[in-house]
Amino acid sequence: VQLQASGGGLVQAGDSLRLSCAISGRTVRTGVLAWFRQAPGKEREFVAAIRRITSTTYTDDVKGRFTISRDNAKNTVNLQMNFLKPEDTAIYYCAARMNDLVLSALRDVAQYDYWGRGTLVTVSS
Fold it and tell me: Are strands 17-24 and 2-6 parallel, antiparallel or unpaired?
């Protein structure tokens, strides 16, 4: 299974970006797709996850600004990011797990089977 993230770039505070992650090699229909991010000097942190089609979970920092979605037909997971802030600057990684997870485990990086290489998002003030 391979994950390829794209859509990052340099934007100004308040702008929007849409990240996309293409999944090849296997279809993740019943598992979990997620986005994590890692800022310079910090650990990788959970951003958002989607289980099945509509069950979504977000970290508090992005609630109301970011939206995760999945397209099973295209085998992709997307992250729409609005009202970006300088503190959103990080490398964003998509991750996949073949089986479902309980809500309390969604934020644990060790629970995911596959990772993409990441795409850099830089938000200037």
Answer: antiparallel
d(CA 65, CA 108): 22
Q: Are 124 and 91 in contact (CB under 8 A)?
A: no
| Residues 79 and 65 sit within 8 Å (Cβ to Cβ) | no
What does the pLDDT read at residue 64?
97
Strands (E), the chain: 2-6, 9-12, 17-24, 32-38, 45-51, 55-58, 66-71, 76-81, 90-97, 114-115, 119-124
Residue 42 structure tokens:
């910090």
For the segment 58-85, what is each residue's pLDDT rounded down to a tens digit?
Answer: 999 999 999 999 988 888 999 999 999 9
33 forms beta bridges with 50, 96
What the block records as the tokens of 95 is: 């991750």
Tokens of 47: 């951003």
Tell me phi and psi for residue 109, to 5 degrees. -60, -30
